[in-house]
Amino acid sequence: MKVILHDLGLQSHEQLLTKCDEALFADGKYAPCQGCFGCWTKHPAECFIKDKLQKACRVLGRADELIIITKNLYGAYSVPIKNVMDRTIGASTPLSTFRGWEMHHVLRYKKHRLMKVLVYGDITDKEKETFTYMVKRNALNDGYKKTEVLFFTSAEEAEAAL
Predict the structure, then answer these.
(1) Which one, of 146, 126, 128, 150, lies nearest residue 136 by Cα?
(2) Average pLDDT over residues 116-123
(3) Which sequence spans correspond to the domains of the chain?
(4) Could you give the dihedral angle defined by the CA atoms of residues 82, 86, 87 and 92, in that order, rounded to the nearest 10 degrees?
(5) Residue 39 and residue 129: Cα distance in Å, rounded?
């Protein structure tokens, strides 16, 4: 299953839906993670907050290919994208295992093929380095076999690269 997580806007969202199995629009119209860990234990892979991200754990957890389109924010994801990612901690379990010679949480779903991040906006070389490192660490933690990070000057360029 191919999933696109983006912060591009509603008009772009409609177009992106034709290029994937599921698209999540990080518009910021949802609550941030409360850190209750209920999605780990009480109701696995489902957030207790009744908004559009309630089942985001399941959507991202089942993605074989995850494409994230995000504005650069000092070498990291935009705030709306980071909020969505925080709400998907339930895609793993509270149990631990070794992955890449490090301790990581056991995945609730199978391993994934590709995590591809398309970054747009002004970005320095140091921020590119930081972003690339962060994506590799996120991919390892979330069970992705391969990562790609591409940089663009505008959101339109990033969207066209799909």
Answers:
(1) 146
(2) 98
(3) 59-149
(4) 130
(5) 32
